[in-house]
Structure to design on (456 residues):
């Protein structure tokens, strides 16, 4: 397991390559990358991602351990940034490795669903007209029901 | 006991953290104490359904006991990912 | 859409980086990478992946078009190798980009399920004791039922 | 009409492709013609449930018409990915 919470950008290609390369006899690697989207209309200057240092690492570790316990996984990777993000910046990524493609896919979706609603991050969108905290979506909370 | 605030809860109350002496035995009692202190607390805690609480960095709920708890954090629903 | 059928290896990190980089305002990128697993016991010397030139490209294009029609996708990438593959070699990858993470995940799983059973590839495993064509799994055929 | 064979069908029949003059109007009739030719064809086509067929590079089935078809391919279930 490799869990990183960091302000600095990460090198997506390098991380995917390194994660895949260090697996032994895993037939399937799935990755998800989350990217900052621009806002329609006025446009977004930046997003500020606040987090709860200490609890964040703890929550992500718990989510990764739950995934490892539930599926036949060789490894899990989570990288999540905080601080200032611009449109098109990569916010976070997860990676899963398994002998079975269904396990790799399901575990990656599980990680994303839990990480969205159970890891202490908060997004604030800043436009030239002002700023607004992003509201949690009911569909994100509902997504947890399937696990 | 350390009390931490994040996101718009932090903005509404105006500080990211404070250390309190409280006789509250549950999170709910602590919230009532805070609301009684000042209008900015009353505003932040007006709608508990819009808030989440963590005790010693684990998600919890508003009727949980504070016994042995050293760090309480209040914040809106998370929006990571 | 970017569909490639090739004998040569591909650079996974480079492909993931390039695919992600060329998306505009897509919040979610999912990739799947398939890796040659070794065989238990005697061990595998190599896998030979046969395919049907012409039909392969046609089938993969159709599968990618079906995914683009069914989900809200910005882009689809499929790279699939043929020829000789050694244990730990990357066989193939897919990538999906969407504004919604659920769409990116589902489309990637759909691509994989169809590609497994509907694209004309055949795997032969060669050990020092002989060679054997890999048999299609009932579960792979069954996986199509959910779409 | 070009007839193509892949994987163990190719190995059993011994050639990857051939050009045939056939009066068969369906895939099924073509299979019967081939089986009647030589033992290696009979062996390859012994169990049709283990085979798939493509007509002009589209997956099809054994009762499909051959009218206008230029390329027929026989192979086992695919194992890509």
């Amino acid at each position: 397991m490799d869990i990183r919470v960091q302000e600095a950008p990460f090198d997506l290609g390098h991380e995917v390559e390194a994660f895949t390369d260090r697996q032994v006899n895993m037939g399937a690697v799935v990755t998800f990358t989350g990217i900052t989207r621009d806002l329609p209309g006025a446009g977004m200057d930046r997003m500020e991602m606040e987090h709860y240092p200490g609890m964040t690492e703890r929550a992500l570790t718990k989510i990764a351990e739950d995934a490892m316990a539930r599926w036949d996984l060789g490894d899990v990777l989570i990288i999540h940034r905080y601080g200032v993000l611009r449109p098109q910046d990569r916010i976070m990524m997860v990676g899963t490795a398994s002998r079975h493609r269904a396990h790799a896919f399901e575990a990656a979706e599980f990680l994303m669903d839990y990480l969205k609603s159970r890891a202490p991050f908060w997004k604030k969108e800043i436009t030239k007209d002002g700023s607004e905290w992003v509201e949690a979506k009911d569909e994100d909370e509902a997504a947890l029901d399937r696990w | 006991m350390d009390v931490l605030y994040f996101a718009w809860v932090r903005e509404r109350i105006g500080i990211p953290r404070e250390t309190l002496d409280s006789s509250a035995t549950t999170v709910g009692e602590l919230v009532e104490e805070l609301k009684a202190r000042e209008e900015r607390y009353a505003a932040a805690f007006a709608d508990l359904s819009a808030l989440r609480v963590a005790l010693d960095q684990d998600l919890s709920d508003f009727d949980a006991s504070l016994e042995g708890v050293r760090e309480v954090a209040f914040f809106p629903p998370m929006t990571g990912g």
Notes: Chain A has a mean pLDDT of 96. The interface with chain C takes residues 11-14, 16-18, 20, 23, 25-38, 87-88, 90, 99, 101-102, 104-105, 108-109, 112, 143 of chain A (CB under 8 Å). The longest strand of chain A covers residues 73-81.
